[in-house]
Design a protein that fits this description.
Layout lengths: L3 E4 L7 H12 L5 E6 L2 H13 L2 E8 L2 E8 L20 E5 L9 H15 L8 E4 L14 H9 L3 E5 H6 L10 E3 L1 H10 L2 E3 L2
Parallel strand pairs: 1-2, 5-6, 5-9, 6-7, 7-8
Antiparallel strand pairs: 2-4, 3-4
Length: about 200
C-alpha cells in the first residue's frame, strides 16, 4: 500500500489544514503520511492541529518546502474545526506593494523609504504571511533591486512572495525575476483576502 502524501504547496490557510484533516480521518491508526507545505504559518498550524488530534508530527525543510511526517496514534475524531487553527497572530497580515517608491514626495526620498521599509520587515515583532508585488512594485523583486537580499531572507523564513506576472510582462521584466513566485491576480486577491489585515506602504 502506497503512503498518503498531502500536497498543499501553494495553498494558504485554511486549505492545508482542511486537506490534512481529511487525509488524517482516512488514515488507519499506526499508519504514516506526509504533508507538503511551502509557508511557515501553515506548517505551524498544521503541526499544532495534528498534535492536538491524535497524531505525531515531525518536519524538515528544504528549498522552501516543509515536509511534515505524520503518524496517526489515535482513532478519535478531531473535535476542533481545522479552520480554527488559522488564527496565527504572527502571520495574520499581508503586505501589498504597488510601487517601487513609498509615499507621494520626491522620487529619491520615496525609493529610500521603500528600501528602508522592506529591509526592516524582518525585524518586526511578527512577519507577514505574504508580500504581494504588483504594478511598479514588481521592480523590487527583479534584477537590480536594492532589497533582493532582504526579500530572499524573508522568503527563507516562510514569508510567501507573490509577484504579478501580468506586470512583469508589461514591463518586460519576466526574465529578470530574482525572488518570489510569478503569480496572477486571482492568487494575489486570495492571499490578501485571507489575511487578517493588509498593509500598503
Amino acid at each position: 500500500m502506497s503512503e498518503t502524501t498531502v500536497d498543499a504547496r501553494g495553498q494558504m490557510c485554511p486549505k492545508p489544514l482542511i486537506m490534512t484533516k481529511k487525509a488524517l480521518a482516512e488514515l488507519a491508526v499506526g499508519r504514516e503520511m506526509s504533508v507538503l507545505i511551502d509557508n511557515e504559518a501553515s506548517r505551524r498550524n498544521v503541526c499544532r492541529f495534528l498534535e492536538d488530534n491524535g497524531a505525531e508530527a515531525t518536519w524538515t525543510e528544504a528549498a522552501g518546502v516543509f515536509t511534515i511526517r505524520v503518524k496517526k496514534t489515535s482513532g478519535r475524531t478531531p473535535q476542533t474545526k481545522a479552520e480554527d487553527y488559522c488564527a496565527s497572530p504572527a502571520r495574520s497580515y499581508a503586505i501589498a506593494v504597488n510601487n517601487d517608491k513609498m509615499g507621494f514626495g520626491p522620487d529619491e526620498l520615496g525609493r529610500m523609504l521603500i528600501k528602508a521599509f522592506i529591509n526592516t520587515i524582518g525585524e518586526a515583532p511578527s512577519l507577514p504571511g505574504v508580500i504581494a508585488f504588483y504594478n511598479n512594485g514588481v521592480y523590487l523583486a527583479v534584477e537590480g533591486s536594492p532589497v533582493i537580499d532582504s526579500l530572499m531572507e524573508l522568503q527563507s523564513r516562510g514569508v510567501k512572495i507573490l509577484v504579478c506576472g501580468t506586470c512583469l510582462d508589461y514591463f518586460d521584466e519576466i526574465g529578470q525575476l530574482k525572488v518570489g513566485t510569478v503569480s496572477n491576480m486571482y492568487d494575489i486577491i486570495e492571499a490578501l483576502t485571507a489575511a487578517g489585515h493588509v498593509v500598503v506602504p
